[in-house]
Amino acid sequence: MSSVTTVLYVALITFACGVFGQSAKIVEVANFNEPTLDDWSHKKFAGFTAYSIVKDGVDSVLSAKSNSSASGLYLAKRVDLTEYPYINWRWKISRRLSDREERLKQGDDFAARVYLVVSGGMFFWKTRAISYVWSNRMAKGSEWPNAFAGASAMMHSVRGKEDAVNTWYSEKRNLLEDMRRIHGQEIRYIDVLALMSDTDNAGGSVEAWYDDIYFSKQ
Question: Which segments of the chain does DSSP mark as H helices, in order?
Fold first, then answer.
């Protein structure tokens, strides 16, 4: 988006807020009711996880099937966390992965991940990320550096082995506070959201489902 376009966009949003008296309560990222994933990009690491939109009852959701593979979907989406600090989503998984040390490279597999990335632009060393994961070993609330990227991409266990499979769970995290606590700095914007289900390091297969991803004021 050019700087001129950005200024016009902000002006229009400001005008709309003045007319209607308040800004939107949420920023929607995806509900997967659209029949395609054209707005998303696919990044391969080791083989391809198969991503597709499927029916789950009356809902359309994102299915991710990983078979000894690791690839992710990502979406460029800049969100002001001072306005919309909460990230919300639903997810479920088909099975638990085998027990292994998730803090090491050979065990860095997760049935489901939700990444939030702050771009460093040309200064790649300034890139920061949080990965909310469905862990098989780490206790809920545990945090640790990513085995490949280190402390610039911290992991946070939201779900674990005590949680039921084939069951939808709704999540809400205060991303503004998590970024502040984990990375020790005030981070106003996130730039990219990514989803990944991977089984490339320890092998095996899993299916996960994602839906209703949005940012909210509270």
Answer: 3-20, 175-183
Sheet holding 150-159: strands in order across?
41-46, 70-80, 189-198, 110-118, 128-134, 150-159, 143-146
pLDDT score at 3:
36
Taking phi first (over 0 means left), then psi (-120 to 50 degrees means alpha), and beta for anything else, what does residue 55 get?
Answer: beta
Please choose, from the candidates 193, 177, 172, 41, the residue with its C-alpha nearest in 3D space to the C-alpha of residue 119. Answer: 193
Q: Taking Cα atoms as reference points, which of 80, 85, 111, 113 lies closest to residue 98?
A: 111
| pLDDT per residue as tens digits for the range 120-148 | 765 565 689 999 999 999 999 999 999 99
Q: Outline where 115-171 has alpha helix (H).
A: none
pLDDT, tens digit, 9 for 90 and up, residues 75-86: 999 999 999 999
Q: What are phi and psi of 133, to 5 degrees?
A: -125, 155
Q: Which domains does the chain have, with CATH numbers?
A: 25-216 (2.60.120.260)
Low-confidence ranges of the chain (pLDDT < 50): 1-22
